[in-house]
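[job 0412] stage=fold_complex status=start
inputs:
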Amino acid sequence: MKPNNVSAEIIAVGSELLLGQIVNTNAAYISTKLSEIGIDLFRQSVVGDNPERLTVALKDALSKSDIVITSGGLGPTVDDITMAAIASTVSRPLILDEEIWKSIKDFFKKRRLKMPHYVSKQAHVLEGALAIKNPVGTAPGVIIEYGKKTIIALPGPPRELKPILEKSVIPYLRKKFGKRSIILTRSIRTAGLPESYVNKKIRKFLMMSGQVTAGIYSRPNEVDIKITAKAVDKKRATAKIKKVEKNILSILGKAVFGFDGDTLELIVGKELTKKHMTLSIAESCTGGLISSRITNISGSSKYLDRSIITYSDRSKIKELGVKKDLIARHGAVSRPVAVAMAKGIRGRSGSDVALAVTGIAGPSGGTEEKPVGLVYIALAKQGNVRCVERRYIGNRTDIKYQVSSAALELLRKELLK
Amino acid sequence: MKPNNVSAEIIAVGSELLLGQIVNTNAAYISTKLSEIGIDLFRQSVVGDNPERLTVALKDALSKSDIVITSGGLGPTVDDITMAAIASTVSRPLILDEEIWKSIKDFFKKRRLKMPHYVSKQAHVLEGALAIKNPVGTAPGVIIEYGKKTIIALPGPPRELKPILEKSVIPYLRKKFGKRSIILTRSIRTAGLPESYVNKKIRKFLMMSGQVTAGIYSRPNEVDIKITAKAVDKKRATAKIKKVEKNILSILGKAVFGFDGDTLELIVGKELTKKHMTLSIAESCTGGLISSRITNISGSSKYLDRSIITYSDRSKIKELGVKKDLIARHGAVSRPVAVAMAKGIRGRSGSDVALAVTGIAGPSGGTEEKPVGLVYIALAKQGNVRCVERRYIGNRTDIKYQVSSAALELLRKELLK
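[job 0412] stage=fold_complex status=done
writing structure:
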């Protein structure tokens, strides 16, 4: 492993990116690939289809980083300025690359398309540059060695950029810069804890710096702790992560529902499957979202028997057997009604467990006593029914999502008992 | 209109963005909003949670642009470095803002949460800065005038950034920089047409260049045509857009379901409300997604009576009255079963219209004859039942989404009759 840090900068080129008409997903992708071979990213930036600005950005990046990667602006039209801007930045001429030219002509021949004359522009690469054929388009990728710096130009469409980056650029960089330290990450996922609580509890891990760091990322009703480790190889990085992970798990306990790509619905599904249990759901304010999340998991038909979305008092009475006077006395959004809904759907379906929610998703329908965001979540299991009250803030879809997470979390905790 | 250009740069702060662990969607959003008030974007960039690098990026941006907007890094933890980096860049102290401090304390009180002491960090803003309350979180937005330059710091979570940008920052910039040439966009939204068909039909508008341009953006089962116009004022830009819009509408006809922020569920809801009609839904493979989309609309309790998600044969029989031998003869994924489900839920709920879907969301459960992605969608209205067969490609959640859009589109067309 070479001792010094290698740093890189990514410049995405395109007015449609700069104006926000499309989202720049390439930068995140390139970042991930670079971190896997231990290359430190200094900055990502986006510039429009403007040759002067791109030249300024290229010079600036070359003054700060060892590797500069551009994406986009390699097409055949006048808008496509990347290659000319690089040529001007490094003061080298563009010359026709015969092999690339042949592959472009083949591209059109194979697809029986008429080739516009201006496409030959894409066969012109910088003198001394390494051109990489594009397996799915006509714009080649280009690697240019410029003094001690490396400039890499990639086409903008993700499906063209990805194979060139993975098959040619990453191996090239790994070879040039040698075996370096790698960066590995691991997410610990929790539900039902406030971010401030998690922050306080694991504060000392957040203050770490150097080769292992931890950070908190929160979404509605779910907080992730992401551990990042740098080491010479995967084994050592994993060992560093495991040590911190073990400590955090012992602090947060059962609030941790999973890791990395795990979702509440996936974990709940695994537990139901393991225990051979079936589930039914009665939803009011979530309007089907809990069931939709449950059924995002392949195999959910094994445990989800049915759900009933009772969006009217009438349907709560008819479908779930909620007593009319119970609604009249306590209101549809109340603890007794949530409990009756859970009992009703469980009785009707014969499922092992049942969830029920009733609440006010807003923005209208709230009162002083029962504000928007108030919700009751009930869980019925054999003879027992539990019911919790929660209050959430946000717009209608935010509230729906938070309630659905809280319901799934209540079920997960019950299944762990 | 002031003659000189006003330029802006956006700096997103966060190692998780730089390392590609999350995609930077804020930059695209801010870009769009700036272009609407005629502010020219010079560059977007992303830097990690590194105070020195952020300071370098801030100084660099201030040397090139009139407005520098940061997103992220305003949280209460040690990772959150933006405010300190700005303070160091402009050499001004951070002082406690009493009003913001009070709003943060209220935030915790309302949620009945214990407030960690370090949250007070978020109430410290730059001397002379304008602090903007965060309606959904604790990090305030901040506007700082620095010589002729304006620095704006916004919180990173999109649901916190958006209201602050729209309600405070954009009006502030419009007032400061006056009336400029503006860029306006208009999206025409269609459902049920293949992208290649739309492309062919409106080809001549896509080839336009100059002050009005059109582009195609496609999502599963929905294709948008985005028209962009530049003009000295909103009236002229609108007139340019209207001309192109009118032509495209006459070509695409009833496939157009709405404009800009319109969704199928919103339009369907408006039609049901207008006609005083009620809806009930029987879902199988979509697992609650159609109902969840319908109930994302405020006021949907006026027309959605109930939905039943029958994820088992048993529940189709018991809840919807589907005949056991119908399922045995044709299979649960079949035209007769979809029709019986629609009739069943309509009969049970007494709603004016009813939707029913049955299909194979995959990835398992497909056969040669009935592959993954096959779906039947039925619509019942008074004596009539219509049923369509569709085939979709994608992963489980893609297929669910496409089926839900097709069902909503079928209902929309029926309501337009």
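[job 0412] summary: The first strand of chain B starts at residue 7 and ends at 13.
[job 0412] exit 0
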